[in-house]
Write a structure and sequence with these properties.
Layout (H helix, E strand, L loop, with lengths): L2 H7 L1 H14 L4 H6 L1 H14 L6 H21 L4 H21 L6 H61 L7 H28 L4 E5 H18 L3 E4 L7 E5 H18 L5 E8 L3 E7 L30 H11 L3 E7 L3 E9 L6
Parallel strand pairs: 2-4
Antiparallel strand pairs: 1-3, 4-5, 5-7, 6-7
């Protein structure tokens, strides 16, 4: 059986096997299922490329065009360039595996055509991915600067107005006007902390140190309690074992935890509760931040970690907090994930390696 005939007969099985290979690489099953259309199209183009009656130049242009569109789609959906390459590799792997299992020989010429088509697809997909990513970075940089200036101006404007009112002596320092001033100043501080953390992450500057977790959580709790009170939310922080330590960049780790807490205060329902709990295993430290936001729309959990994504009606801020938190945690060798509790809220978990106690 010619390879072209084999691909035509086993088209569905090849697509299913390639999808399984993509899942095995770590891509969520639901997302891998969405890639079936692109995988199926590539297999169809391989079938055309192996047909003697087809013009190789025409087929090559078709593969290049669909691969370029595919690379752009994967970028917009938040995939890495490695996942772009792996998806095409999964198709080739599926073909070779099935051919071996079904004793369908692949000639040298057919293998050459298969590899040429694969090479064209990968090159075009990666090139388009890189081109659109570069454009996005330039645009995102300008957008980020504009958003930061806008947010700083708003917070500073509110602070100046309320300060002038307080200075005039017409209202007291313990009333609502003073509360607005305090909120504006905290917003300015949060914007600066987030921006500094983002700059540190982009520059690759990271200073690791041993941090005693109980002391660290106490420091974070002080500022977080003020923000919770301003948002009319109760913050509950569970005690931490005193001897537990992690190795982190203290500033970036503090930004990660603070961003998660501020996100919880921002989206949880008024007069509800945000909790911070720490779970300890012999080799891991897990920090859970749980809110009562009501839960997430189906399939939207991972989208929260993309830059400039904001998930609720409150659009203050740059939409960078969760993205910065994930980068900060992963840079210290940890993992940040989210679990949806339908109808209740979300649980963000920071999972870090636990240091061996110092002697």
């Amino acid at each position: 059986m010619l390879l072209r005939e084999f691909l035509s007969a086993q088209h569905g099985a090849i697509v299913a096997r390639a999808r399984s290979n993509v899942v095995a690489s770590g891509l969520p099953r639901g997302v891998a299922n969405q890639r079936s259309v692109a995988i199926s199209l590539f297999v169809e183009q391989l079938i055309e490329a192996l047909g003697r009656s087809f013009d190789p130049a025409v087929v090559t242009r078709a593969i290049r065009g669909s691969a370029a569109r595919h690379g752009g789609e994967l970028l917009r959906e938040g995939f890495t360039v490695a996942q772009v390459v792996h998806e095409y590799g999964a198709v080739c792997q599926a073909i070779v595996e099935l051919a071996g299992e079904l004793s369908a020989p692949i000639t040298a010429n057919e293998l050459h055509t298969l590899n040429r088509c694969l090479d064209e697809a990968i090159a075009c997909a990666v090139t388009e991915y890189a081109r659109q990513r570069e454009q996005w970075l330039v645009h995102a940089g300008h957008e980020r600067l504009g958003e930061l200036a806008h947010e700083l101006r708003n917070a500073l404007g509110s602070a100046m107005i309320t300060f002038d009112i307080l200075r005039a002596g017409n209202v007291g320092y313990s009333g609502s006007t003073a509360g607005v001033l305090g909120s504006s100043l905290r917003r300015l501080a949060a914007l600066m902390d987030s921006s500094l953390a983002d700059v540190r992450l982009e520059s690759g500057v990271r200073v690791l140190e041993r941090v005693r977790l109980s002391e660290f959580i106490e420091e974070v709790e002080i500022g977080a309690t003020l923000e919770a009170h301003a948002r009319d939310v109760t913050l509950a922080v569970a005690p931490v074992e005193p001897a537990v330590e992690v190795q982190v960049d203290r500033m970036l780790f503090a930004a990660a935890v603070s961003n998660l807490l501020n996100n919880a205060f921002k989206f949880t329902r008024p007069r509800s509760r945000v909790s911070l709990k720490t779970r300890i295993t012999p080799d891991r430290v897990l920090i859970d931040i749980e809110d009562e936001c009501g839960g997430l729309p189906a399939g939207k959990a991972e989208a929260l970690f993309r830059p400039f994504v904001q998930g609720g009606a409150d659009r203050t801020g740059l939409g960078l907090g969760l993205s910065i938190s994930r980068k900060s945690v992963e840079g210290d060798g940890g993992e940040l994930r989210v679990r949806d509790v339908p109808g209740v809220g979300c649980v963000f978990t920071i999972d870090m390696p636990r240091l061996v106690p110092s002697t």
